């Protein structure tokens, strides 16, 4: 069984989301070839949700890592329906004890996800994090632990 985690940018332009979704699906399918696949995700908008859908579409199991009790409320309102649908399809949930959804709780959730992961997919432009707990911080933490990281940033992708 492969336990595959996700970290990545949110708020990507639509054309970049299409490129990233296709590339993520290819990576998930590649990892699913070895047998059972478990995807670990915080289910945020952007890379997390794209990855979660790709895992489910590949007949993998989804484990939701929830940073804080107020996490869902801190996500964009237009993402709540997607979050709820993905959350309902998770076979397991790991909820951290934080009350508020903050950069600290998000990084703690990423660290907890790394505790479970065999490999990390990172939707990352290679730039420093824009705030504590950003994608670059998670990639750095994974590499420090020796967890393999595959960067998914297809040619033509950009951030705003």
Describe this structure in words.
- By secondary structure, the protein is of the alpha/beta class.
- It has one domain (about 1-120, about 145-150): Rossmann fold, CATH 3.40.50.450.
- The chain contains 6 helices and 6 strands; from the N terminus they run βαβαβααβαβαβ.
- The chain has helices at about 15-30, 45-55, 70-75, 80-90, 105-115, 135-145; strands at about 1-10, 35-40, 60-70, 90-100, 120-125, 150.
- The protein has a 6-stranded parallel β-sheet, sandwiched between helices.
- Helix 1 (about 15-30) packs across helix 2, helix 2 runs parallel beside helix 4 and helix 5 runs parallel beside helix 6.
- The radius of gyration is 14 Å and the shape is globular.
- The termini are far apart.
- The model has no long low-confidence stretch (mean pLDDT about 95).
Descriptive keywords:
6-stranded parallel beta sheet, 43% helix, Rossmann fold, 6 strands, 6 helices, 160 residues, alpha/beta
